[in-house]
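Possible regression after last week's pipeline update?

I re-ran a chain I had predicted before the update to compare outputs. Posting the input and the new output here so someone can diff against the archived version. Not blocking, just want to make sure nothing changed silently.
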Amino acid sequence: MKYPKRLKQGDKIGIAAPAGPVDKKILKKGLGILKKMGFSPVLGKHVLAQDRYMAGTVEQRIEDLHGFFRDPQIKAIFCARGGYGTSHILPSLDSSIIRKNPKIFVGSSDITLLILFLVQQCSLVTFHGPMVAGNFGNYPMPKSKIQFSEILSGKKAGKRLTANEAHVFKSGTAEGRVIGGCLTLLCRSLGTPWEIKTRNKILLLEDVNEPLYKIDGMLWHLKQAGKFKGVRGIIFGEMVNCLPSKKSGGSFNEILNDIFSGSSFPVLTNFPSGHGREMLTIPMGVEASLDTNLKALEFENCGVL
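New output (post-update):
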């Protein structure tokens, strides 16, 4: 894996919108948070563009991403928000540009597909974390802001994540590199060149606003595609507003019982990484240890040099 350089105070951060269109007011609020952290955000040329339900054309979004990776003054790339549209740009990304210019990249939600591309096609440690407008522009996120700054600047305190609010579905310990993201997007990766590779991994799964029967269907899809074979452990995010469509619609734990009752690996749920009001930053492609009894995920390093 290629490790990007850690961030320092005053570093210029490229702000890109690889997926859905960005609300200017919410983006401005998120940019203010980054400035208070000591960073200097630089907006992509097309970050406020819109083409239907996407943040500009494929060409515009690719221009911003390639431009930020090539620019030596830009020390990291943070996504403005998720939404929809990342899948459109993946065939046009030039992995050679990214490999030659490794730098911190942070995103989540629809950006999950881009995370898979960067980790698996470019061997770049990439960060599943808060986005400028989508997260910092919407929620105070006091715990997340501290850990975000710590891990990206290489401070050891940022690489040990604990969550007292998490629930233990299946206890145990596990070691492996972390991969994953939004469940919906992981399912969309199947059958593509950037299909998620899960063997010997600790798998992160999260989603938002999906009825339980759809969560059930997507988890069965991953299971029947063999994606839980050889997995070392699974961490579920908070699954925000993923509720039964009817009163008799069952529960999330019942779905987990159906799918993982015969599994030997540990499963932790309700971990603050996803679409909640707090969102811890997770380096993808870095070796980690999971301990459900401590409700902790600790990384070998911060994922930066």
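Follow-up from reviewer: compared with the archived run. Residues 24-36 form the longest helix (13 residues). Marking as no regression found.
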